[in-house]
Each structure stands twice: as C-alpha cells, then as structure tokens.
Amino acid sequence: MSIDVGSILQGKVTGITNFGAFILLPEEKSGLVHISEVSNEFIKDINDVLTVGDEVNVKVVSVAPDGKISLSIKQTQEVSNNAEVAKKKEFSKSANFRSGNGHNRSVKKEEQGFDALISSFLKTSEERLSLLRRNTESKRGGRGGRRS
C-alpha cells in the first residue's frame, strides 16, 4: 500500500509535541498532524484531544520530496460530517414536502432581500449602541465638563 496524497489511512499516535502529533502509518512510515489539523475547534493543548497509543484515521495532505508526510485528522471528520449533513438535508426536504410546512418561510426570507436584512441589522445595532452609551455615560458623569 503506497501513501498517496488524498488517501485516508489508519495510524497510531507515537509522539506528541506542542505543535502536533506524530503518527505511525502502514509500511512503518511516520507523518505529522499539525495541531491546526486535529479538530475544527480551537485546541489549546493537544494532550486534551490525543494521547500516545491512540488509533486515528488520517488523510494524507502532502508528501514532500524529502519524505515528510503531512496528515490531517480534521479532514477525515469533514468527509463523514458532509455525508451526515447531506442525509439530514435530504430528510428535512422530504419531511417539509410531506407536511407542507417550513418551505414557505424559507422562501419569504430569501425574497426579503439583502437590503432589508442590512437595514434590520443596522437598526438593532444602533439600538444596542445607544443603550450601551447611555449606561456608560451615566457612570462617567455624562458629556458635560468636569465639576469643580
């Protein structure tokens, strides 16, 4: 089995550093999963997610001419998540079609248009800013000059 870019393999975590994890691949080859490629969420400490000896699925991102292999755990999760999302979308479409609900509401939002959405956003943000200003100015003594 050759290690080609884009292939998904199973490997074992052999070492962890502050910037990533080393994975033992088939054919006794080793690759690195950078900490940014472990999960879609922010990871402060990779030890919270991985431990030495874990079996993980990895996708080969690149193979450098000098033999260094870059891997990603996150991209293997995205493949399975995309399949789940597609199933959920298909189910919701069929459920909306059968019940007759939900479809009209989404069409109305699309017809509302970008300008209406922006004006709605501006209105709410201006209200929030005025409330914030009112609260902070009362604590600072208002806009007038200093009292002697």
The CATH topology of the largest domain is OB fold (Dihydrolipoamide Acetyltransferase, E2P)
By DSSP (H or I, 4+ residues per run), the number of helices equals: 3
What composes the largest sheet?
5 strands, mixed, barrel
Strand proportion? 15-25%
Strand order, largest beta sheet: 1-2-3-5-4
Low-confidence stretches: 103-107
- Succession of helices and strands: EEEEEHHH
Number of domain units: 2
The assigned CATH architecture of the largest domain is Beta Barrel
What is this entry, summarized?
With 148 residues, this protein is α+β, with helices and mostly antiparallel strands. Helix content is 43%, strand content 24%. It has 3 helices and 5 strands; from the N terminus they run βββββααα.
Structural write-up:
A hairpin with a 5-residue loop joins strand 4 (55-63) and strand 5. The protein folds into 2 domains: 8-74, OB fold (Dihydrolipoamide Acetyltransferase, E2P); 78-129, no CATH class. The radius of gyration is 26 Å and the shape is elongated. The chain has 3 helices and 5 strands; from the N terminus they run βββββααα. The model is unreliable at 103-107 (pLDDT under 50). By secondary structure, the chain is of the alpha+beta class.
Please name the defining characteristics of this protein.
148 residues, alpha+beta, OB fold (Dihydrolipoamide Acetyltransferase, E2P), 2 domains, five-stranded mixed barrel, 3 helices, 5 strands, 43% helix, 24% strand
